[in-house]
Structure formats: C-alpha cells, structure tokens
Amino acid sequence: MPYLSAISKSGGGQLDLLILDCLYRTGSHNVHLCWDQTLDAIKRICPKRALLIGMTHEMDHHKDNQTLEEWSRREGIDVQLARDGLRVYIDLTFAYSVTSIKFPVALTILFLSIRN
User: Fold this and answer.
1) How many Cα atoms within 13 Å fall on the side-chain side of residue 97?
2) Which of 4, 57, 64, 91 is most buried per CB count within 10 Å?
3) What is the mean pLDDT of residues 102-115?
4) What is the spatial distance between Cα 65 and Cα 104, in angstroms, rounded to a whole number?
5) In sequence order, which ranges of the chain are alpha helices (DSSP H)?
6) Residues 6 and 22: beta-carbon distance below 8 Å
7) How far apart are CA 42 and CA 36, in angstroms?
8) Strand 99-109 and strand 86-96: pairing?
9) Transmembrane stretches, by residue range (predicted)?
10) Contact status, residue 19 vs residue 50, Cβ threshold 8 Å
11) pLDDT tens per residue, range 65-93
12) The model's pTM
C-alpha cells in the first residue's frame, strides 16, 4: 500500500488501497492535489479503494462524501474522505526463507487543525 502525498502525476497499477491528499474542493495548489486532480489521479491509478486526506476545513465531510459515493458508483472505485481516528487495517505478508509471516497492522489517520 503506497502512501502518495504532494504528487502531480502517477502511473497505473491495481492497488488495494490508495491514500491521496486533496487539499481544496475547488481551485488548485502548486504542491498538493485538489479535488479534480485527486479524482483524475485515482482514475489513472485505478485502486480498489481510495481515501482522501489533508483536506482544509472548507470541505463539508458529509456532503463531499455523498458526492464521492456517487462518483464511486459511476467509476467503480470506492473513494471517500478519511476522518479523524479512522482505522485502516492492512494485512502485510512478509516472506522469510520458506516461511510466510502475517502481521496485522492498523493505520490510524489523525488530522490536526491549527486555529488562531
């Protein structure tokens, strides 16, 4: 499971989970992806599931997740905004010699907001 942040272009391949930043709902940024660029990248990479992180406070979590649910049905890729405390369970398999060992790993996503 790769973690991609601050990308502008990426190549294809089927992934179980893709985590991308999505700074703004509208507009653009010189380093981070925004809504349209993020969804375009997801379409190009075509993972089974994608989580969007790094959003500003301007995103409406409920409304934007509804929009993503419609997009997901249309495109066939499960996409949603991540949230504070979201736990994503990842099954990592490490091969050592002849033996395969599985380690369940939980990735907790935490967003920090700084307010003046």
Assistant:
1) 1
2) 64
3) 46
4) 27
5) 35-45, 61-75
6) no
7) 10
8) antiparallel
9) 94-114
10) yes
11) 999 999 999 999 999 999 888 888 776 66
12) 0.68
